[in-house]
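Supplementary Data S3. Sequence and C-alpha cells for construct A.
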Amino acid sequence: MLQHIFLESRVLLFGVWIVVQLVLIGIWSARRTRAANRAVWIGLVALPTLMLVSTVVHTEREKLMALCRTLARHVQHGEAGPIEARLADDFAAAGLDRAAFIERLEPALERFGLDNIRLSQFDITFDGSDRATVELSASCNVRTADRFLSQVLSRWRVVFTPVHGEWRIATIEAVPTPFSPIRNLRDWIR
C-alpha cells in the first residue's frame, strides 16, 4: 500500500502530503517552537522531492501497465510483429500454442479494425518473482467489413513471466462479463 501511495499514485501522494502538512502547521501554530518551524519547512520540501522520486522510480506494477498499453497500441495499429516479440516461448492461449496464435492473430487484426482502445481497472497480482497476473478492462471501437461497433467493453486476464529481465506474455484469456460480447478469445482469432 505504501509503495502504491509513494511511487505509483501522485494523487494519493499529494493527498497524504496535504494531511501531513496540515498536521504540521497545526502543531507549529500551537507550539511555535524551532523544531515545529523546521518540520513545516521539511514538509514543504518533501512534496517536490517525493514527486521527483515517484516520477523517476518505476515499479513492476507500472512497468506491466505500460507494457499492456504498448501492446494495445500495437493491436490498434494491426502490428503482430511487436506482439509476437512479447510472447513467451511456452505461450499458450485459447488452445493454441505460440506459432498457431500468431498465425491466427495477423488475419484477425486485419479483419477487425480496432481503434480508440482504452485500458482501465488494472488488477495486478504477483505470484512470487516468476509470475504476474494482470486483469484489466478494455474498451474500443470495432470495424469489420460490414459493421461498426462503438465502445465494445471487455475484460482480459494476462499472465506474464519474466524472461531475461523483461516481462513476456505466458497466456491471455478473455474474462466473460455481463456487458461484453467477448466470451472467448478463440471466437475472435479464428
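Construct B, processed identically:
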Amino acid sequence: MYNKKKYNHMKAKYTIIVVSVMLLTSCAAYYPQVVDIPLIKEKGDIRIDAGCFLAPNFQGSANFGGHATISAGLTNMLAVQGYASTDVLFRNHIQGALGLFKGFGSKTVMEMYAGYGYGAGLESDDNSNKKRNSYHLAFTQFNIGKTDLGRAHIDYGLGLKGGYLHNNLVEISDNSPFQKKNGYIVEPSVFFRFGGKKVKFSARINYLWTEVIKNNYYFPLSVSMGVNFHLGTTSK
C-alpha cells in the first residue's frame, strides 16, 4: 500500500544528502587527477580504465565523480594516452599525452609521458560569490611498475607527475577578491590492479603539492577505484 508520508520523508532525506554533498564540494577548484598508469609493453597494447573518485580531502569534504583513461602502444616504444574526468559540480578535466615505454624482462615496465591538460568548473567562496574557473597544465609523468604477477595477475607501481599550471582559479583575500597565480605542481601516485588477464579491478591514490592554489581551493588527495580492460595481446 502506498504510504505518502513515508515517501515524502525519504524524498526529503535524500534531498538533504545530495545538497550536503554539493555544499561540501563547492570550495575546491582543483584536485589531483587519477590518470591510469597503463604500463604499456608493446605495439598494439590497449588499456581502458574507468572508475570513480572516493576519497575525502583533508578538510572533511568529499569529491564524487568519474574518470576514464585510454592508453595504447603505437609502436614498440611509443604510446598515446587520453583522459577525462567530471564530478557532481561539473568540474571537468581533459588531457592528452605522448609517451615512451621500455620493458625490462617480462614483468617490469618504465614509461615517460609528456602532455597538456585543461580543466574548468564553477566555484564559490564562503559568501556564495560564484565564478567560472579554468586552468591549463603542461606536464610530464614518469611511471614504473610490475605486471601480471602470480595467479591474480597483479599489477602495481608508482608515478610522479610534474607540471606548470597556468590558472584563472579564484582566491579570496582582504585586498583583492579575485587573484590568480601560475606555478609548478607535483603529483606522486601509487596504484594496484588484480583480476584476470583481460579485466582487472584497480585502485589509485594521488597526492598534490603546490604553492599555486591556496586555502580550500584544491583537494590535496584523490583516491579512486575502478575497472581496467586490456584489449591488446602481449607476447612477452
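Residues 4-24 form the longest helix (21 residues). The chain has one domain: 4-230.
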